[in-house]
Write a structure and sequence with these properties.
Elements (H helix, E strand, L loop, with lengths): L2 H49 L7 H34 L2 H27 L8 H5 L3 H14 L2 H9 L1
Helix pairs in contact: 1-2, 1-3, 3-5
């Protein structure tokens, strides 16, 4: 095993430990809130930016402020909701089960994160470096990354490779 293998193990282990510490409910709510925040920012930034016109004259700054306001607003509401649900779980006595499932969720999240990094790295010249071929664990993630690559439209792949 080489350094990249140890890094892969560390990423998955750290994600699993975070999942164990927070529990499944907090982890799922956190993931859902981040997805909702990004979706809200993506879908509603234009009308919010239009409302900010009297205060911000530069269009790019106005759009950035709208995205930031939407994302932070959803994250705050989500944090409150997450706190309330986590308190409910703590009171029901399901803490052990919640944490065990959080560990599993965290390990799965770490695995997906590593696969995503391998997917993005496959679009760059990194795959030609000697360590890429020497790694024992990268081969396992290459299969998942190849599947992910097949799901991406060709024009998106071309734009990413052009970066």
């Amino acid at each position: 095993m080489i350094w990249v293998d140890y890094l892969i193990i560390a990423i998955i282990a750290l994600s699993a430990v975070i999942g164990l510490a927070r529990g499944l409910v907090r982890e799922v709510i956190s993931l859902g809130v981040w997805i909702a925040a990004l979706a809200a920012a993506w879908l509603f930034y234009e009308p919010v930016a239009a409302q900010l016109t009297p205060w911000i004259s530069t269009p790019s700054v106005r759009i950035g402020a709208a995205v930031l306001l939407l994302a932070v607003g959803v994250l705050i509401v989500g944090a409150i909701l997450g706190y309330l649900l986590a308190t409910l779980i703590d009171r029901t006595g399901l803490t052990g089960t919640d944490r065990l499932l959080g560990l599993i969720f965290g390990a799965a999240r770490g695995t997906v994160l590593v696969a995503l990094v391998v997917f993005l790295a496959a679009l760059t010249p990194l795959t030609e470096d000697p360590w890429w071929g020497q790694s024992q664990l990268l081969d396992q993630f290459k299969l998942l990354a190849e599947w992910m690559l097949k799901q991406v439209p060709p024009d998106v792949t071309e734009r990413i490779q052009a970066l």
